[in-house]
Amino acid sequence: MANNENKPKSTEVTKVAEGPLASERGTTTIADQVVAKIAGLAMAKVEGVYAVGGGFSRAFGAAKEALGGGKDIARGVSVEVGTKQAAVDLTLIVEYPHPIHKVAEEVRDVVLNNIEDLVGLEVVEVNIDVTDVHVAGEEDAVEEAETSTVAPAAVPEEPRVK
């Protein structure tokens, strides 16, 4: 019989979680609200974006600010964050006469690039819901998105991200 004591012992291979936020030394978890804030800050810098969020969300945010609650940077932003990817839904109001499709495309590009650069996740989609156009001189009150005839976005049955 051969002596097995001289054979090198097999080493166990530990499977490291996959994705840009994982390494052999550990994993990083980024909360949804962090990604939402990054998206909110990014889209607020785009020329032609008058306000973010629908009517109810904006009214709630204004009341919160008036009571000293601070500004909600992530208002109008909804995200789904996985270990490798993120999906973003944005609600905004465009300033007249900025071309809506150009503002939306710039918002999409800026949000996508900021999340991918700052968080390291692949952004699989950035959906934009333009709920109104603000015309200078009009009353600043915007009708609530809930009272419009637009149907709410369908809830996906399966996660959109990996």
How are the secondary structure elements laid out?
Layout: E1 22-23, E2 26-27, H1 32-44, E3 49-52, H2 55-66, E4 77-81, E5 85-95, H3 100-119, E6 122-134
Helix pairs in contact: 1-3
What integer is the average pLDDT?
79
Strand content: 15-25%
Question: Low-confidence parts lasting 5 or more residues at pLDDT below 50?
Answer: 56-69, 140-149
Specify the overall morphology. elongated
Fourth CATH level, the homologous superfamily of one domain: Cation efflux protein, cytoplasmic domain
Name of the CATH class of one domain: Alpha Beta
CATH architecture designation of one domain: 2-Layer Sandwich
Largest sheet: 4 strands, mixed
CATH topology of one domain: Alpha-Beta Plaits
The rounded distance between the terminal residues' Cα atoms is 51 Å
Q: Supply Rg.
A: 22 Å
Number of helices: 3
Structural class: alpha+beta
Query: What is the ordering of alpha helices and beta strands?
Result: EEHEHEEHE
- The strand count comes to 6
Tell me the helix content.
25-40%
InterPro entries: Asp23
Pfam families: Asp23
Family: Belongs to the asp23 family.
Protein name: Stress protein, Gls24 family
Descriptive report:
It is built from 3 helices and 6 strands. The model is unreliable at 56-69 and 140-149 (pLDDT under 50). The chain has a domain at 32-137: Cation efflux protein, cytoplasmic domain (Alpha-Beta Plaits, 2-Layer Sandwich), CATH 3.30.70. The protein has 162 residues and is an alpha+beta fold. The radius of gyration is 22 Å and the shape is elongated. The protein is 28% helix and 23% strand. Pfam families: Asp23 (PF03780). This is Stress protein, Gls24 family.
